[in-house]
Amino acid sequence: MDCIFCKILKNEIPSKRIYEDEKVIAIMDINPVVDGHVLIIPKEHVEDYQGLKPELLQHIYKVADKLTKELMTKLNSKGLTFVVNYGDSQLVKHFHLHLLPDYQLKEKEMDVDKVFEILTK
Ligand code: 5GP
Ligand code: ZN
């Protein structure tokens, strides 16, 4: 299957991982909209939100809660936005939740390497 996130999960494409457990990974978005733009990606290939089992959604929600607190503390953010794209708005057809610290509050200031360093130290 030609899925870019499955390739990232198999380490065939490199990524900056800030979190991993048995069900999901969280990586830095390659083309961030804001500083600290992170994607939570389930290890199971599920095309979009409609295919997500409630248990997996619940787990993603727990991870999102943990990472929201971490991102906001480490980046000193005042807010954070969750985004799930669907249909033609969803470019990668493997479900993912976007975490966007300070979306609509602050301009992007750092490159991804710098943010990754802050989040993983
Ligand atoms: P969506 O499918 O929700 O429209 O957005 C896909 C997101 O995945 C975009 O924000 C895009 O920058 C990100 N993305 C696409 N390809 C890669 C990749 O190879 N690595 C990483 N880290 N992010 C990617
Ligand atoms: Zn996939």
CATH superfamily: HIT-like
Strand percentage? 15-25%
Succession of helices and strands:
HEEEHEEH
Annotation field: number of helices: 3
Number of self-contained structural domains: 1
How many DSSP E strands? 5
Tags for this model:
121 residues; alpha+beta; HIT family, subunit A; five-stranded antiparallel sheet; globular; binds guanosine-5'-monophosphate; binds zinc ion
Structure description:
The chain is an alpha+beta fold and 121 residues long. The chain has one domain: 2-Layer Sandwich (HIT family, subunit A). The chain has three helices and five strands, in the order H-E-E-E-H-E-E-H. It has helices spanning 4-9, 54-74, 112-120, and strands at 17-20, 24-28, 38-42, 80-83, 97-101. The protein has a five-stranded antiparallel sheet. It starts with a helix and ends with a helix. The mean pLDDT is 97. Bound molecules: guanosine-5'-monophosphate (5GP) and zinc ion (ZN). Zinc ion is lined by residues 3, 5-6, 45, 94.
